[in-house]
């Protein structure tokens, strides 16, 4: 009975706050679904201008099903929406929760995991016509930038880790947004609102040029072919998911933007459209995507589209110029290379990503030689969680010293931070009996601003290549500004910089390492990662959405799979803990049992349960028997693959 009750609590508590549409509903809501699961050839007819034209009955049937299912799903999901006046948060459970409803997928040849099931299908379709892992990732990114535009899109930026099996070599693509040339350290003058909303909060987007450079280096299919599946949504529309609806409800200021208002505001009801509602992207955005498809990624930076975007930006009051767009270049560089033991190697991007923080966490904890026994029994689990939390605190304290390596001399610091020897040194400083609530004990004397929402995609292709990419526009719906003529929803990444004069709640000064400078990239907690085994095979492809909780979530899922012997689904499902040094308490997810919470409090940890998703992981794990894959139930993504 306890298991049933726990399962119901998981469904009612988490789903009522920020879960997504049911999987069986998502699969039916667009005619593109039939197109994606059809046969593909290698010629231009793969994505005809009017797909399915030869099968009128199928189109009619799909559209009828679309209307029916959209209405039904919108109604059903609407009944489950969180209502503070009707919903009471449950107490922390006494027993572990039952498994979530997400699928543990197994594929033999290839897999694509995204936050939106349609986008996983598009990635799979690209792989099925001999597209590379990078091709699949790019196609899924364009899709996700539309279906999850509250979190990512062509007005934002990304970090990508690429592994090429034939070379047995990994690369990092840093396409994080940059500060414009006219940006100044004190440009916000104490106004946190201007840093987070409106025209001054916009950084120079890196998404499209980053994808373009990655495609030029590792793509196999024509660029246009990667965007055409997403353009189908311009014809048929797409349904608002629960994840998008939650983003809308968290960013109600979007109704002040004419484009977003037209797309998501139901004027007849004076309310936002509900989940399951069919909406169509703005014609301006669809024209922009078509131009990028036909002319290439540089069109947004030094073509006629760049001129249109610069004009749009100028009209909003942004300080980004045509020259800023022209000068923007992504950075393709060596990733951090971190031995994890047992012959495994972690590849993760250097700063301004938080790959070094992930590496530091795993290095600190590897000295304990964790086994499945370390999470068996309440006392063992309390001690193990305590050690993990302490590792989080040391690592997130180090994050306050990080920033864009093009502007800071961090080579020595990063080399030390990611070394196994330094991990052992920090491990020896962990007291198994108690914690410290003094941030300076962990090395934090300044603070770095937390960052916000994102989306993640993981890919393994049949040839053994792998891609892990995390993309963001920062806040839900970024700056809340859509460029009028181009339809591009623009980021608010300037809020991720630290600014002088902004002390935090603990009266700590902001980190100078992350101060604004022209053309500088702000610090990020994104850390898309790939783990390679001793034979040079992609063993694990992982990353997460979730702002500051990304690095801790990726670390938890990684250690649960590699050290604690859980399945990849169990690793993703299990309730999470998080500590980012500021504020000085543990944030934990519903699902941590009461005895564990009491035990951690006894060691001096403040324990605060967070609401909502927290973090959302997409993870692929490969061994000799197949590719095991799970999309986090917390957002409603899915995995598509090839057997």
TrEMBL record:
Gene Ontology terms: biological process: glutathione catabolic process
Domain of life: Eukaryota
Pfam families the UniProt entry points to: G_glu_transpept
Location of the active site: 454
Gene Ontology MF terms in the entry: glutathione hydrolase activity
Alphabetical list of InterPro entries matching this protein: GGT_lsub, GGT_peptidase, GGT_ssub_C, Ntn_hydrolases_N
Residues that hold L-glutamate according to the record: 176, 472-474, 496, 524-525, 547
SUPFAM superfamilies (alphabetical): N-terminal nucleophile aminohydrolases (Ntn hydrolases)
Name of protein: Gamma glutamyl transpeptidase
Entry keywords, A to Z: Hemostasis impairing toxin, Platelet aggregation activating toxin, Toxin
One GO CC term, this protein: plasma membrane
């Amino acid at each position: 009975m306890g298991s049933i009750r726990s399962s119901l609590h998981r469904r009612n508590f988490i789903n009522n706050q920020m879960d997504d549409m049911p999987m069986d509903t998502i699969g039916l809501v667009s005619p593109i679904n039939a197109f994606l699961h059809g046969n593909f050839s290698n010629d231009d007819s793969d994505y005809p201008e009017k797909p399915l034209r030869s099968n009128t009955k199928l189109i009619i049937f799909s559209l009828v099903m679309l209307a029916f299912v959209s209405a039904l799903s919108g109604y059903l999901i609407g009944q489950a929406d969180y209502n503070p006046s009707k919903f009471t948060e449950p107490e922390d459970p006494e027993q572990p929760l039952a498994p979530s409803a997400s699928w543990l997928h197994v594929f033999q040849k290839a897999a694509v995991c995204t936050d939106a099931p349609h986008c996983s299908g598009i990635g799979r379709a690209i792989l099925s016509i001999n597209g590379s892992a990078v091709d699949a990732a790019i196609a899924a990114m364009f899709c996700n930038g539309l279906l999850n535009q509250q979190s990512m899109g062509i007005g934002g930026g990304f970090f990508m880790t690429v592994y090429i099996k034939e070379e047995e070599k990994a690369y990092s693509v840093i396409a994080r947004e940059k500060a414009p040339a006219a940006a100044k350290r004190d440009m916000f003058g104490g106004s946190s609102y201007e840093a987070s909303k409106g025209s001054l909060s916009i950084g120079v987007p890196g998404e499209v040029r980053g994808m373009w450079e990655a495609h030029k280096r590792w793509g196999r299919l024509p660029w246009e072919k990667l965007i055409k599946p997403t353009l189908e949504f311009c014809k048929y529309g797409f349904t608002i998911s629960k994840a998008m609806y939650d983003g809308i409800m968290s960013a109600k200021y979007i109704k002040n933007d004419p484009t977003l208002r037209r797309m998501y505001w139901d004027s007849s009801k004076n309310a936002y459209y509900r989940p399951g509602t069919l909406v169509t992207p703005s014609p301006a955005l669809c024209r922009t995507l078509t131009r990028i498809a036909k002319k290439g990624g540089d069109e947004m930076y030094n073509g006629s589209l760049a001129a249109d975007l610069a004009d749009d930006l100028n009209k909003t009051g942004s300080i980004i110029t045509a020259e800023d767009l022209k000068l923007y270049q992504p950075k393709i560089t060596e990733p951090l290379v971190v031995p994890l033991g047992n012959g495994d190697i972690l590849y993760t991007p250097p700063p301004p990503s938080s790959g070094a923080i992930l590496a530091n966490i795993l290095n600190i904890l590897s000295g304990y030689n964790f086994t499945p026994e370390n999470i068996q029994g309440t006392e063992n689990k309390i001690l193990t969680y305590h050690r993990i939390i302490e590792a989080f605190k040391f690592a997130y304290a180090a994050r306050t010293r990080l920033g864009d390596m093009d502007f800071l001399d961090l080579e020595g610091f990063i080399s030390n931070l990611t070394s196994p020897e330094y991990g052992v040194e920090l491990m020896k400083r962990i007291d198994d009996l108690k914690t410290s609530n003094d941030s300076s004990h962990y090395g934090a004397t300044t603070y770095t601003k937390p960052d916000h929402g994102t989306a993640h995609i993981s890919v393994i292709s049949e040839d053994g290549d792998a891609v892990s990419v995390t993309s963001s526009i920062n806040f839900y719906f970024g700056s809340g500004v859509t460029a009028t003529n181009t339809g591009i929803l623009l980021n608010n990444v300037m809020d991720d910089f630290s600014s002088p004069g902004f002390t935090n709640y603990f009266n700590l000064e902001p980190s100078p390492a992350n101060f604004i400078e022209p053309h500088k990239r702000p610090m990020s907690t994104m850390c898309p990662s790939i783990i390679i085994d001793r034979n040079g095979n992609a063993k694990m492809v992982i990353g997460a959405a979730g702002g500051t909780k990304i690095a801790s979530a990726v670390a938890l899922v990684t250690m649960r799979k590699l050290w604690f012997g859980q399945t990849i689904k169990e690793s993703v499902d299990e309730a999470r803990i998080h500590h980012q040094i500021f504020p000085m308490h543990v944030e934990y997810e519903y699902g941590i049992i009461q005895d564990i919470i009491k035990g951690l409090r006894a060691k001096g940890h403040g324990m605060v349960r967070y609401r909502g998703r927290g973090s959302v992981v997409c993870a692929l794990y490969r061994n000799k028997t197949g590719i095991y894959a799970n999309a986090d139930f917390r957002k409603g993504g899915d995995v598509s693959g090839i057997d």
